[in-house]
Amino acid sequence: xxxxxxxxxxxxxxxxxxxxxxxxxxxxxxxxxxxxxxxxxxxxxxxxxxxxxxxxxxxxxxxxxxxxxxxxxxxxxxxxxxxxxxxxxxxxxxxxxxxxxxxxxxxxxxxxxxxxxxxxxxxxxxxxxxxxxxxxxxxxxxxxxxxxxxxxxxxxxxxxxxxxxxxxxxxxxxxxxxxxxxxxxxxxxxxxxxxxxxxxxxxxxxxxxxxxxxxxxxxxxxxxxxxxxxxxxxxxxxxxxxxxxxxxxxxxxxxxxxxxxxxxxxxxxxxxxxxxxxxxxxxxxxxxxxxxxxxxxxxxxxxxxxxxxxxxxxxxxxxxxxxxxxxxxxxxxxxxxxxxxxxxxxxxxxxxxxxxxxxxxxxxxxxxxxxx
Length: 372
What we know:
alpha+beta, globular
């Protein structure tokens, strides 16, 4: 049977070791081209695994989706302070689907939520008291989180747009736009660009912590890897399916919680992406302090809407149903024809473990995974 290739997922075979001072002696004497054996102990985070090499655990950064228990043959490619290895062979299990590895970076909790909690922990630990640079970085990060989690005024599309603009997902696009318009970037321009973007501040904080606070570097690296995985996932899904996944701050509780918004523009792989009969879909997955986990799905064909809610308890469903007439009235007032609005109770565990990232990759046959 011939199956056409519709999707290609590629990952470099490089594995970068990050040895601690007490384990560096294990790697003494390594030479380029030498092959060594390793075993995958566990996955630490998206992009990081713990390997057992010569009987000792070592942290490694890699985009190869490895499984715990796998035996690896690695070739030494570089022998600096953080040796570079390349995967030659794996035994004891298949590699994970690369598409699923990308999904892991966009699951719940989001990298934005992890970063927010890390910044709070750094402030409590006194990181901002170390010097003017540290204090300014924490201040800038808190400003961006406050901007995205503002409670003032009714929610609207401008607030979501503001968060997307500043939330790190468009960092490289901003850089390309500015560098394309000028031969060089002035220090003032660079400072303003970094201050106004979560990924820019994350990368600056990561660079500084590698020298001044190495104990934080591992956690910051994990957040950065997860954020880049979310960017890659959005790039793939937007190009192939017309879908976008956005972490959404919920400015109701303290600390800020993050939900998920999935936007599906109804792109047809074989049809016209601008056809008039396409169906737009928006899904929201939220965790509320009192209502618990909640999922909302909206489908729109021209100006006709269908809305459904899934909640985890009958009491929440009854509360939601009491307000559905008000929601219908608001939608009609904005010019929509509302076909149906419904709410149902589902298994709490299903909602608690759900992730809209599962809808970002087409499960159809035709995927090709490459380890380069």
